[in-house]
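so my prof wants the structure for this chain in the tokens format not the other one, which i didnt know existed until like an hour ago. anyway here's the sequence
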Amino acid sequence: MLVVEKAVVLLTSLLVTPFLIRTLGTNDYGLWILILSILGWFNILDLGLPAAVQRYITIALEQGDNAKVNTVFSTSLALFSLIGLVAASAVLILASNPQILGATSIDEPTIALALSLLCLKVLWDFMMNCFHGFFGGLLRFDIDANISALNAITKAILIFSFVPSLNIKGAVIATLMADVLSNLLKVYYCKKLYPPLSFRITLVRSETIKELFQFSKHVVAIGVARTLNMKTAPFIIAQVLGLTSVALFSIADRLISHAQAFAAAISMTFGPVFTKKVARGESMENLFQNVSTINIFFAAAMFTPLLAFGSIFIELWVGVEFSFAYWIMALLVLVFFCRFLSASVRQTLFAQKNHQWLSVVQLAGAVVNITVAILLAARFGVMGVAAGAAVGAIIADVVLSLMLLRKYNDFVIRPVLKTFFLAI
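here's what i got, hopefully its the right format
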């Protein structure tokens, strides 16, 4: 079902993207991408708690400890609600001062209105983090996938209905309405899957908060690095090259992200399996090697046809004027390929609670990414930004990640490296 979900998301995106470009125009479409990127920055405020909550809920479910499950759930819901309110308030501050984002006077009212409404989405997204642990812990990714697919379909239908008359405001309303439906379904199915689930304010424990932060404190920097790596490019491009170039970059990024999502649909299911291995005290070396090989195989299976036919597809999809996006995409393929190599490293270290130095590794990659992107953007345009991402990924996700794995484990990694280089 995860693959079906990605197929649905891909199909709706392929239909919605050219529609938005034609209806909004290249400049306003670039503005919409910039707004979505701004929202992504607030993921930094999750303090690494989603990973911690999923880990402790998975272990509690594995041990059949209902009291521990509800304690973690109640505590995390209270925490995420508080953090969500802080994040939503920060979005409202940006909405009141859109000039901070470097927007032109013409675009400022649009940004202000969009962010004022989307602050609700930020709040909801934070609150929903504590429900995802149940789908992972119970290995019911199919339900989460079905809800995500429904969200994509609903959002696409509403965008086609509202955007022609309401412009970017219509896209905002479509996003909020689709999220309301999917969030209600997530709550319903979590309760159905795990009937003992309940929120009680009396179960909010300070010791549980400390336990969660003990694990998540090192994840915070990882989240910051991930946000810097994935959300900085549109901002740099908008400042240096303009909103039209943001639209060009987003075409390449959207295509490669969809291809990556298909492979990630397989990879992400192994996270709870690593955690269960630790809970049982079992060795993870064979699991690490097998999962790494699976990740590399599916990455190659997705990216090879994209490189082979991407140029023709882009011209047919959004028009000849965006054909240069193919070369941006070619560099981004390398970025995501490297991330698939490091995915099993992260899952191993998170399961073992040996993730302390992952934050340093990812932040190093983010610093390299941003530095190279800024240095090359003025001379090489959008390709310079993509090159920064590629250099940062090689350093962080290949070299430093494997060095970190070897620091905590004596796993044999030569077969994994051989498979990786053969796949490239």
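also thought this was worth mentioning. The radius of gyration is 21 Å.
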